[in-house]
Design goal:
Layout: E1 8-14, H1 25-38, E2 43-51, E3 54-61, E4 66-67, E5 73-74, H2 75-94, E6 107-111, H3 117-131, H4 146-149, H5 160-167, H6 174-178, H7 184-189
Antiparallel strand pairs: 1-3, 1-6, 2-3, 4-5
Helix pairs in contact: 1-2
C-alpha cells in the first residue's frame, strides 16, 4: 500500500496458517523494540496490541512516512518489511523452524478521520485480548497500549495526545468507552485486504 502523509491506518498481520508468533514474554518485548526501531521513526503510533498469533497497530502517517525525492521512497513500507523479516529470523532460530512466520502481506486499511472508524479501531485493538479469552480485563494484558492510556504504565511507543486529538475522545472516558460493544458494520469498516 502506498502511504501518504496525514492519514490513519489499521495495520495488521498474523502468523502463517494462524500459527503462534509470540512464544514468550521476551518475544513480545523484542517485537516492540523492533517497532520502535523500524516503524516509530516513520509514523505516529496511536495504539497497538500484540496477540499470540497476530498483531494490530493504529497509526497516523506524518512527514517522515515517505522520503521525498524523484522516487518518493516509502520508508514506512520498508520499515514493516524490516520489522517482520528481522523478527522472523530471530523466532526461526529460537524455535528451530524454517520458512515464513507471518502471512505474505501485511494488511493496511485506511480509516476515515471524519467518521468514528479510527475510534472503533482503537477500541477493537484494545478489546482483542478480552474477546479471545486471554484476560477478563483489558488492563491485565501486558502487550497492548490500553495500559498506557489508563495510566497503568508509561510507554514511549504511542502518541496518546495525538490520538485523543485526532479521534476526539476524552481520556477519562476511555476505560468505559473501550468496553462498549462494536457493531458488525463498524467492525467490517476497519478491515480491508489492501497490503503494505
Amino acid at each position: 500500500m502506498k502511504f501518504s502523509e496525514g492519514s490513519l491506518f489499521h495495520i495488521y498481520n498474523q502468523g502463517n496458517n494462524r500459527e503462534t508468533v509470540f512464544y514468550t514474554h521476551a518475544n513480545y518485548i523484542f517485537f516492540l523494540s523492533k517497532i520502535k526501531k523500524y516503524i516509530k521513526p516513520h509514523c505516529e503510533i496511536l495504539s497497538y496490541c500484540l496477540m499470540p498469533n497476530h498483531f494490530h497497530l493504529l497509526i497516523y502517517t506524518n512527514q517522515n512516512t515517505v522520503k521525498k525525492n524523484c522516487y518518493d521512497k516509502n520508508l514506512l513500507s520498508e520499515g514493516f518489511r524490516h520489522l517482520l523479516s528481522s523478527y522472523a529470523k530471530a523466532i526461526n532460530i529460537q524455535q528451530s523452524r524454517v520458512g515464513s512466520l507471518f502471512t505474505q502481506n501485511t494488511h493496511a486499511k485506511k480509516l476515515s478521520n471524519k467518521t468514528n472508524q479510527a475510534l472503533v479501531c482503537l477500541m477493537y485493538i484494545h478489546q482483542n485480548p478480552v474477546k479471545s479469552g486471554l484476560v477478563s480485563d483489558m488492563g491485565n494484558w501486558m502487550y497492548s497500549s490500553f495500559r498506557d492510556y489508563c495510566g497503568l504504565r508509561n510507554d514511549t511507543i504511542c502518541n496518546k495526545d495525538l490520538a485523543i486529538e485526532l479521534l476526539d475522545f476524552k481520556k477519562e472516558n476511555l476505560y468505559q468507552l473501550s468496553y462498549d460493544l462494536i457493531s458488525n458494520d463498524d467492525l467490517k469498516s476497519i478491515f480491508h485486504w489492501s497490503t503494505v
